[in-house]
Amino acid sequence: MEKSHGAKSSGTSQDYGWLILFLLILAVMWYSQGGRFETGGIILEPPSSVSQSPASEEKTAAIPPKKDTGAPGESPYKNQISIGTDAARATNPKEEYITLAASYGNTENINITDWALTNKAGTIIKIRQGAYLPYSARVNPQADIRLEPGGKAIILTGNSPIATNFRLNTCTGYFSQFQNFIPNLPEQCPYPKNIPGLYNMKDDACINYIENLPRCVMPQNVPLMTQDTCRAVIETNFNYAGCVENEKNNEKFYSKEWRIYLDKDTELWKDKYEKITLWDKEGRLVSEYSY
């Protein structure tokens, strides 16, 4: 009886030895195949927690690449655009504005569309497109806003009187006759007496009337005795559309200034203890100003 029991124990030990050897072989094969083992139609994969999830891949792909600027989080446009707080302390949103100024040392126009401004409270406001050649009382085609070297953008908290951001030109002073702009639009319209062909007219009274017209004003009360030809000259030339038609091919027609409106009806910048920060399209720091 004792001899038979000893033979059975020896057999069991041999069985365990073969099982351990088999498991060791499986482990070596698993490791050598990178954690993927295929046998008999069965595929063994590593645990799902080891691989990157689809959500993580999407989040990584959504982060825009950043240029190497030498300082983490800084924009390549740092020191090329600066913030000024000309009227940031105004409490009326229609009168509240800041300026962005492009350095005269810049070598190219800088596109500021989709850049963002933030205040100390964390409010984020994006800069939208604007009208390159604006018109009042009509829908204006929109384009990206680019600041030339030495150019500037006046960014107002309130709404645009002509319902769009816009670039100034030598004729935009006409807008001020019927709308209120803060700060005032420059009156750089050509002098009325300088319209082409004025002194070829035979109507001396008409010439005298036009010579005394102010700049950037559309006449409202033309004298009744004025001849039809004179009236036609006045109606054609002395308004915004007529001015644009006469001046648009002048190399100095466009200004380097933009007016940008944030369309807010409440104050955005505090009158003191404020911090204004400008971020580029990729979310990198361009400029900041505290007061």
How would you describe this protein?
This protein is of the alpha+beta class and 291 residues long. Helices cover 23% and strands 20% of the residues. The protein has helices at 2-32, 54-62, 204-211, 228-237, 240-247; strands spanning 37-39, 42-44, 81-87, 97-102, 110-111, 116-118, 124-126, 146-147, 152-156, 166-169, 254-261, 275-279, 285-290. The strands form four sheets. A five-stranded mixed sheet has the order 3-4-9-11-10, with no helix packed on it. A hairpin with a 5-residue loop joins β12 (275-279) and β13. The longest helix is centred in the first third of the chain and has 31 residues, at 2-32. The protein is elongated and about 125 Å long. The termini are far apart.
Task: Give the arrangement of secondary structure elements.
Blueprint lengths: L1 H31 L4 E3 L2 E3 L9 H9 L18 E7 L9 E6 L7 E2 L4 E3 L5 E3 L19 E2 L4 E5 L9 E4 L34 H8 L16 H10 L2 H8 L6 E8 L13 E5 L5 E6 L1
Parallel strand pairs: 9-11
Antiparallel strand pairs: 1-2, 3-4, 4-9, 5-8, 6-7, 6-12, 10-11, 12-13
Q: How do you describe this structure in short?
A:
With 291 residues, the chain is an alpha+beta fold.
Distance between the termini: 101 Å
H and E order: HEEHEEEEEEEEHHHEEE
Query: What is the helix content?
Result: 10-25%
**How much of the polypeptide forms β-strand, as a percent range?**
15-25%
- Return the domain count: 2
Number of strands: 13
As laid out across the biggest beta sheet, the strand order is 3-4-9-11-10
